[in-house]
Amino acid sequence: MRTGRENFMQLAIQSWRPVYEPQFTFGLKVSKWTLHQIAMLSACGPQLTNSPTVIVMVGLPARGKTYISKKLTRYLNWIGVPTKVFNVGEYRREAVKHYSSYDFFRPDNEEGMNVRKQCALAALRDVKLYLSAEGGQIAVFDATNTTRERRGMVLNFAKENGFKVFFIESVCNDPSVVATNVMEVKLSSPDYRDCNSTDAMEDFMKRINCYQASYQPLDPDNYDRDVSLIKVIDVGRRFLVNRVQDHIQSRIVYYLMNIHVQPRTIYLCRHGESEFNLKGKIGGDSGLSNRGKKFAIALNKFVEEQNLKDLKIWTSQLKRTIQTAEALKLPYEQWKALNEIDAGVCEEMTYEEIKEKHPEEFALRDQDKYYYRYPSGESYQDLVQRLEPVIMELERQENVLVICHQAAMRCLLAYFLDKSAAEMPYLKCPLHTVLKLTPVAYGCRVESICLNVEAVNTHRDQTEEAKKGPNPLMRRNSVTPLASPEPTKKPRINSFDEHVASSSAVLPVCMPQEVPTQLPGQPLLGKSCLRTVYHFLKVFSLLIFPRT
Question: What are the residue boundaries of the 6-phosphofructo-2-kinase domain, all occurrences included (predicted)?
Fold first, then answer.
């Protein structure tokens, strides 16, 4: 005799369909609204976990949307997620060569409304091309998107193309912050190239009023409760997060909650010249040379001259950075994450010794320096992952001096200067030189300050062979696993049966014998869907037919 639960499960399996179609209720009272929500979620949800994502900016003008877009894109590209900004304002300026006044943005200006809509559609077409054919993973749709109609258009576009959507709304109710943003950024835009600041300010404030009249903020409590979003309120004083879907969205939320716009200065420098630097050796944990000690004294004088309030000093855990910081006679923190790149079997060797003892490794590293990993060591890509917590903390801080090493400094500098993975390993970070970084509106200003203490040159230029691109015959274990430079990756669904066979013995409860492992005429993806449905029904039946 079958129990009620077994009959329920058997009927459910026999009633399985490849599309959503409620076949059984068993006396349960399920509202039409609930069924509608389930159907919409199953229809709108992308089929693959790692589907491309469209980040949709929302907010009135001068609320920092473009600032967030550019900064977030810089971070995502730095951690290895191909991302690009599509600013609708640039499409509008391309379509309308000469900006006349705020009248173009009036809601009763039908011609202007039509031009703006066509520009948005053109940007979305480029978004589709980037995510579908150019290897992009995230596209940032940078526009006001202040109405539900416009956001609905973007949602339909994403649904048709199988993209995820994540909204970022920037809300600012502080008039002084808005005025500062207009003065620092908007008045220097191409729209006001030939206009004095007073007239430009007046025109832009009227432009904001045009959007204000039809502004419909995101409403996560009612209308937008099923939408993935974050509201950034008053430049990060408060946040509201709703329905984060996946890992990358959670990283975006975490990043946005760490950045700020307060004035600050970040100083990057390497340790003083070390004994191993003099010998041409890489890695190791040697102390400072005599010239390195002179640099430490010069650095102390430089820091005193800067007269910085509440300066924080960070070093690695290696001897040469600690000795450099000791001369400053100020408190400092040690970060293991700031240690030099691990050269593995090549530690404490010169480049000539590496070329002689490990000629293949020497050649492989020159072919693709960013992805190459030393045997038993690290790659630059590994180093970026290790330094991500440092970047997060730097974004939270004000004035910081970071005393680190050549490879670590290159990674940090690449983040602030928006350099690509190919450029990163060849950024020049000479000894006994301080780089002063000052964040500005859409980037970072860099000043190089030499402290006039001689030191050896440890920089190696990119070879002509490396400029041609990575060698396709590159040893696989020299590349970080699961993060290869291949632009696209296909899902391996053909290995599903082997995975089921290997896991069924370990998880007999989840994969009982009576469940068919193959349906005639159904694709492998259908089997995956069937098992997902089965797991849902397994739990659901326990609620209906409790054990006796």
Answer: 43-263
Which residues form the catalytic set? 271, 340
Residue 267 burial (C-beta neighbours within 10 Å; 0-12, 13-18, 19+): buried
Say what the pLDDT of residue 440 is.
86
CB 166 within 8 Å of CB 250: no
DSSP single-letter state for residue 162: T
Place of tokens 């062979």: 465
| Residue closest to 453 by CA, chosen among 470, 468, 433 | 433
* Residue 465 buriedness (CB in 10 A; 0-12 / 13-18 / 19+): exposed
CATH number for the region 53-256 comes to: 3.40.50.300
And the tokens for 457? 């040159």
| Short-list 47, 43, 5, CA closest to 21 | 43
Is 411 in a helix, a strand, or coil? helix
Dihedral in degrees, nearest 10, Cα atoms 134, 386, 388, 334: -160
Q: What are phi and psi of 547, to 5 degrees?
A: -65, 145
Rounded to an integer, the average pLDDT of 167-177 is 94
| Mean per-residue pLDDT, 329-352 | 98
CA-to-CA distance for 87 and 373, rounded, in angstroms? 37
Helix axes 319-326, 290-306, angle to 10 degrees: 50
Q: What's this model's pTM, rounded to 2 decimal places?
A: 0.78
Residue 397's Cβ-count burial label (10 Å; 0-12, 13-18, 19+) is middle
Q: Where are the beta strands (DSSP E) in 362-408?
A: 400-404
Residue list, annotated binding site: 270-277, 320
* Domain made up of 266-478: CATH architecture: 3-Layer(aba) Sandwich (3.40)
What is the token pair recorded at 158?
């994403």
Give residue-wise pLDDT tens across range 216-271: 999 999 999 999 999 999 999 999 999 999 999 999 999 999 999 888 999 999 99
Q: HSE-up of 227 (CA within 13 Å, CB side)? A: 28
Mean pLDDT for 351-376 is 96
Residue spans of the domains in the chain: they are 53-256, 266-478, 496-548
pLDDT digits (tens, 9 = 90+) for 71-119: 999 999 999 999 999 999 999 999 998 898 999 999 999 999 999 999 9
What distance in Å separates the CA atoms of residue 128 and residue 150, rounded to the nearest whole number?
Answer: 17
Residue ranges for the binding site for substrate? 270-277, 320
Which of 167, 100, 90 minimizes the C-alpha distance to 126? 90
